[in-house]
Design a protein that fits this description.
This is NADPH-dependent 2,4-dienoyl-CoA reductase/sulfur reductase-like enzyme. This protein is α/β, with parallel strands linked by helices. The chain contains 14 helices and 21 strands. The chain folds into three domains: about 180 residues, FAD/NAD(P)-binding domain (3-Layer(bba) Sandwich), CATH 3.50.50; about 140 residues, FAD/NAD(P)-binding domain (3-Layer(bba) Sandwich), CATH 3.50.50.60; about 70 residues, no CATH class. Helix 3 packs parallel to helix 4, helix 4 crosses helix 6 and helix 8 packs antiparallel against helix 10.
Length: about 400
C-alpha cells in the first residue's frame, strides 16, 4: 500500500493485485468487526481516491509469463496483467510444526486466529491458548481478548532470559516499546509461560485440552481453541519464479535485494516480509523505498535509509531472541500427520532421503497448499532443502489455464 501511494503521487499508472477481498493486508485486515481507522483508514482512502490506481481485489497471481506479464485469476476469470516495473510485496505465512493433535478442529495458527476474528468469527467466552514464538502471539491474544475471549495462557518457546533481553531492547524503538507495554497491560492477568511449548492437543472430534511442556514438567490446560505457530516464513514463490535470487536468513528463504530494494532481476523490486520478516514499520519503509527507486527518485529513497536501518536492527534482535529451540524437531510422533492435504504421516515421509523422494512416494506436498505448510515443517524437522516453485502457484480453474494459453 505504501509503494502504491508513493507511485500514484508521482502520477504514474499503478495496479495493485491483492488476493484479499478488502484492502489493508494482514495487519490492517478489515471485516465485519474490524473496519480501518486512523492511519489505516487514511492510507486506504488515499488508494481508493486515486484515479490512477487500479485495485484488483480477490485476485491471485498464478504464473509468471515472461518479462512484464503475470497470469492472474479472480472469482470470475483469468487474465494477463502487464507491467513495466513490478514491486513484489507478497508478505509471509505462518510456520507450523507438527505435534499430536495439531489437526483437530479448533487448532489454528496465531495469525490465522487473528484473521478469522477480524473476518467475523465469534470467540466471546471461549478459552484460548496462544502458543509458539514471537510478538505475533501477543498481537493475536490482544485481538481475541478484545472480542471477549478468555486467554488461558500464552506459551512462548523462547527462554525467559531471551524474552527479557528483547523487551529491554525495545527502548531503541519507542513505538514498539509503547505497543508492547499496552499489550502487556491489557493481558496483565494472563499466564505467560516462557521456555515452554505445546507437545500435544487432545479432544474427541474437537479440541478440549492441550499439554504444555515447560522444562521437566507437563501442564494440562483446558481450552476451546489453540492458536499455535512458530514464526513467519517469507512468501518468495513469485519472486523466485521471476528469477529473483533468494537466500536463507534465520533458517528461511527470503528474496535478495540491494539498498534500493531492487532484486537481481531488471525492473523487479521487493519489499516487506518477502525480503525477510521484520514487522509492519520496516515493511512500510521498504515499500516506499522500492517505489521511489522504481520511479528513479533515488534521493527520496536514500532519505529513508536511516529509519529503515533502525527497524532492520530491531528485526535482527527479534530473530535472535525468538530463534527456534532445536528440541522442537522432536514434537512429532511417527503417527503424527505431516502433510494435511494428502494425509501423510511423519514416519512415512521421514523414511525418504529428501523432499523430492517423499513427494514421489507419498504425495507429501502435492495437495492444494503445494507444500506451503508441510514443506516448511519438513525443512525444519528433517533438514530437507526446498524445491523451487511450480505454476500454477495456487489452485486454479482449468478454464483459466486454457483460455490464457493463446495470450502467452
Amino acid at each position: 500500500m505504501n509503494a502504491a501511494r508513493v507511485a500514484a503521487q508521482a502520477g504514474v499508472t499503478v495496479g495493485i493485485v491483492d488476493d484479499n477481498a478488502l484492502p489493508g493486508g494482514q495487519i490492517w485486515r478489515q471485516g465485519p468487526q474490524y473496519l480501518a481507522k486512523g492511519r489505516a483508514r487514511i492510507a486506504i482512502d488515499a488508494i481508493h481516491g486515486a484515479a490512477n490506481i487500479t485495485w484488483l481485489n480477490g485476485t491471485r497471481v498464478l504464473q509468471a509469463r515472461g518479462a512484464g506479464r503475470l497470469l492472474v485469476e479472480d472469482a470470475e476469470r483469468g487474465f494477463i496483467v502487464g507491467y513495466g516495473k513490478l514491486i513484489v510485496a507478497t508478505g509471509a505465512r505462518e510456520r507450523f510444526l507438527p505435534y499430536p493433535g495439531w489437526t483437530l478442529p479448533g487448532v489454528t495458527g496465531a495469525g490465522g486466529l487473528q484473521a478469522l476474528i477480524k473476518s467475523g468469527m465469534p470467540v466471546r467466552g471461549e478459552r484460548i491458548v496462544i502458543a509458539g514464538t514471537g510478538p505475533l502471539l501477543w498481537a493475536a491474544a490482544v485481538t481475541a481478548h478484545e472480542q471477549g475471549a478468555q486467554i488461558a495462557a500464552i506459551v512462548e518457546q523462547s527462554s525467559a532470559q531471551a524474552v527479557r533481553g528483547f523487551a529491554a531492547s525495545l527502548i531503541r524503538t519507542p513505538a514498539k516499546l509503547v505497543q508492547a507495554a499496552r499489550m502487556r497491560f491489557d493481558l496483565r492477568a494472563t499466564p505467560y509461560l516462557c521456555g515452554a511449548h505445546v507437545c500435544a492437543a487432545q479432544g474427541d472430534g474437537k479440541l478440549a485440552q492441550v499439554t504444555v511442556r515447560q522444562g521437566a514438567r507437563q501442564i494440562q490446560i483446558d481450552c476451546d481453541r489453540l492458536a499455535c505457530a512458530y514464526g513467519l516464513v517469507p512468501n518468495t514463490v513469485l519472486g523466485t519464479a521471476l528469477g529473483c535470487r533468494s537466500e536463507e536468513t534465520q533458517g528461511v528463504a527470503a528474496i535478495v535485494v540491494d539498498d534500493l530494494q531492487a532484486s537481481t532481476q531488471p525492473d523487479v523490486y521487493a519489499a516487506g516480509e518477502a525480503t525477510g520478516v521484520g514487522g509492519m514499520e520496516l515493511a512500510a519503509l521498504e515499500g516506499q523505498i522500492a517505489a521511489h527507486a522504481a520511479l528513479g527518485n533515488v534521493t527520496q529513497a536514500r532519505a529513508l535509509f536511516g529509519e529503515r536501518e533502525r527497524y532492520r536492527r530491531f528485526a535482527v534482535r527479534m530473530h535472535a531472541a525468538f530463534a527456534l529451540d532445536p528440541q522442537l524437531r522432536g514434537l512429532a510422533t511417527p503417527d503424527t500427520v505431516l502433510c494435511r492435504c494428502e494425509d501423510v504421516r511423519f514416519a512415512d515421509a521421514a523414511q525418504h532421503r529428501n523432499w523430492r523422494d517423499a513427494k514421489l512416494h507419498t504425495r507429501c506436498g502435492m495437495g492444494p497448499c503445494q507444500g506451503k505448510i508441510c514443506g516448511e515443517a519438513a525443512a525444519f524437522c528433517l533438514g530437507w532443502s526446498r524445491n523451487g516453485p511450480r505454476a500454477p502457484f495456487s489452485p486454479a480453474r482449468i478454464g483459466t489455464l486454457m483460455e490464457t494459453q493463446t495470450q502467452a
